[in-house]
């Protein structure tokens, strides 16, 4: 008999490591322990089960060849023993043993190990407010709760849903409740924008507008203060610091924390944020104990700082690396850049690397390139506008992050996936300039959107392009008296500019079409700062370069142009 390997946690990283060890060391005695009876399921698929895209919960627990990943599957197909409904209580590092308890019988026993893997996952954040114990209040962290949520909705017991938390799970659950079931949905986020740690406000605002356009009430900068209930103990609403929202169900999606109590009590190194500290081999401070998945922190390969990234994709990779090292193969997991993508109704939003806010907090002299090109050749019938935000460091020209927002499909995914390995290798603006992307009109433009974003970043970094901050532009549009020295110069066609001239007057909005500027530029005022506007920003930049040459230096380009503005929550568009 080979070494004894005990794995605690059987959702993602744990099963991956367990079967990897058994595959590499056929004589190993591998035991998989979990406190639940549902194991090895796709937790990221829970919103799609609630929405009906996944019709049966067994599909989340099944292989591609339709075998349910249960105790029998692991024992018969993988040769891995399992103990479900069993909780690990303590680790005796000196004796190399784990004390466990059967949650059905209450029986306790000590299980010896040669190598131990902690894949204990994460716990949902339970807000410290009254009412969290009411019936109809759920966190969205396991399959049992998903089944209960869907069952209540399907039986017609829910008409109004309040979702606490504007992260990915909260947004996906809001969509699931609205899109399939037609429920009245309110989404409450404590911070100033959705997906606050994943994208910057411009991308988040586009997402918020799209959710609102699809009937989801989005309330930002609102904290939940109390969950309301009736005398029967059922939820009736949610109170925030600004309003009271009627609700038959409240979903708490306020984030997760690494589940590291077992490791901490065993004396293993745990970070300030509560994550288990591991090295590149997924080894803890005890060389016989490994950890992987949502309970650990990893290295951010852009900033070098530590990153808590509870993602199923990373958990599976970490589980494989842990399995390799347990079996004697020296594999490494260097870290990640937090690559992320999600759908929301007909759109997708994704990111990799640092946001502008995170980059500046990490000490970078960070700036952004904001672009809004076509996702494929402009002449192809199905082309659509996409928006990209590239974060870069002015000093080193290093690209720090990429964010994208656009139609549902593989376009955003392809660019995030292309950017991620470049970010991992410390790529510069010039590397993004020259990256080769496959081209065909139905799929992309000849100058790919990644190249275009980098071109704009290069122009900004080298001082050739002077862009106005979007928030500053929006502030001016709401209060033109704040900058009496500014004028909007619209270089689109007269037809496109006319509604804006009618709305704002020629004293504020000037029209001079792109192809007439070289002949008529002297009609422009020299004593004003001209904010140049077009649809995507490319014509505005060209006009800025020309005006610089003819001694009109006081110009600013609206980055991304009206394509960006139309996708934001603005109320002044004619």
From TrEMBL:
Residues 482-570 form the Rhodanese domain. Coiled coil: none annotated. Its cofactor is FAD. Pfam families: Pyr_redox_2 (PF07992), Pyr_redox_dim (PF02852), Rhodanese (PF00581). InterPro entries: FAD-bd_OxRdtase, FAD/NAD-bd_sf, FAD/NAD-binding_dom, FAD/NAD-linked_Rdtase_dimer_sf, Pyr_nucl-diS_OxRdtase_dimer, Rhodanese-like_dom, Rhodanese-like_dom_sf. Gene3D superfamilies: FAD/NAD(P)-binding domain, Rhodanese-like domain. It comes from the Bacteria. Keywords: FAD, Flavoprotein, Oxidoreductase, Redox-active center. The keyword Metal-binding does not apply. Belongs to the class-III pyridine nucleotide-disulfide oxidoreductase family. This is Pyridine nucleotide-disulfide oxidoreductase. It comes from Desulfofustis limnaeus.
């Amino acid at each position: 008999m080979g070494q004894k390997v005990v794995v605690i946690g059987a959702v993602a990283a744990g099963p991956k490591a367990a079967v990897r060890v058994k595959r590499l060391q056929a004589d190993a005695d591998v035991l998989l322990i979990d406190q639940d009876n549902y194991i090895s399921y796709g937790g990221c698929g829970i919103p799609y089960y609630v929405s009906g895209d996944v019709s049966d919960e067994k599909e989340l627990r099944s292989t591609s060849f339709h075998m349910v990943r249960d105790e029998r599957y692991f024992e018969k197909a993988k040769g891995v023993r399992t103990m479900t409904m069993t909780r690990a209580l303590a680790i005796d590092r000196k004796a190399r043993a784990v004390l466990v308890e059967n949650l059905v019988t209450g029986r306790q026993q000590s299980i010896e190990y040669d190598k131990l893997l902690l894949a204990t996952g994460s716990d949902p954040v339970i807000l410290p407010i009254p009412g969290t114990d009411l019936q109809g209040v759920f966190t969205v962290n396991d399959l049992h709760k998903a089944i209960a949520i869907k069952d209540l909705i399907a039986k017609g017991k829910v008409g109004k849903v309040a979702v606490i938390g504007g992260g990915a799970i909260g947004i996906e659950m809001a969509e699931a409740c609205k899109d399939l079931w037609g429920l009245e949905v309110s989404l409450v986020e404590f911070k100033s924008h959705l997906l606050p740690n994943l994208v910057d406000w411009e991308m988040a605002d586009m997402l918020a507008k799209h959710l609102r356009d699809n009937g989801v009430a989005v309330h930002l900068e609102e904290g939940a203060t109390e969950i309301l209930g009736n005398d029967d103990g059922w939820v009736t609403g949610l109170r925030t610091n600004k309003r009271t929202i009627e609700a038959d169900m409240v979903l708490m999606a306020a984030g997760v924390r690494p589940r590291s109590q077992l490791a901490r009590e065993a004396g293993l190194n745990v970070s300030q944020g509560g994550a288990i500290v591991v090295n590149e081999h997924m080894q803890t401070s005890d060389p016989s104990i490994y950890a992987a998945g949502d309970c650990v922190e990893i290295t951010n390969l852009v900033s070098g700082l530590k990153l808590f990234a509870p993602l199923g994709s990373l958990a599976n990779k970490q589980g494989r690396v842990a399995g390799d090292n347990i079996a004697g193969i020296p594999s490494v997991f260097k870290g990640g850049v937090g690559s992320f993508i999600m759908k929301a109704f007909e759109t997708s939003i994704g990111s990799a690397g640092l946001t502008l806010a995170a980059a500046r907090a990490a000490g970078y002299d960070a700036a952004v390139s904001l672009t809004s090109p076509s996702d494929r050749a402009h002449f192809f019938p199905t082309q659509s506008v996409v928006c990209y935000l590239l974060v870069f460091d002015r000093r080193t020209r290093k690209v720090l992050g990429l964010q994208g927002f656009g139609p549902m499909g593989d376009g955003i995914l392809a660019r995030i996936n292309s950017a991620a390995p470049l970010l991992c290798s410390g790529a510069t603006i010039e590397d993004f300039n020259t990256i080769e992307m496959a081209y065909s009109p139905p799929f992309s433009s000849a100058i790919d959107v990644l190249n275009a974003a980098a071109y704009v970043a290069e122009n900004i970094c080298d001082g050739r392009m002077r862009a106005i901050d979007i928030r500053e532009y929006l502030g001016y549009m709401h209060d033109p008296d704040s900058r009496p020295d500014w004028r909007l110069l619209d270089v689109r066609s007269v037809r496109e500019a006319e509604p804006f001239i009618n709305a704002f007057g020629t004293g504020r909005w000037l029209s001079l079409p792109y192809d007439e500027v070289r002949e008529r530029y002297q009609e422009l005022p020299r004593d004003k700062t001209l904010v140049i506007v077009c649809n995507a920003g490319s014509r505005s930049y060209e006009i800025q370069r020309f005006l610089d040459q003819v001694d009109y230096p006081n110009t600013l380009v609206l980055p991304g142009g009206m394509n960006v503005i139309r996708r934001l929550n603005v109320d002044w568009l004619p």
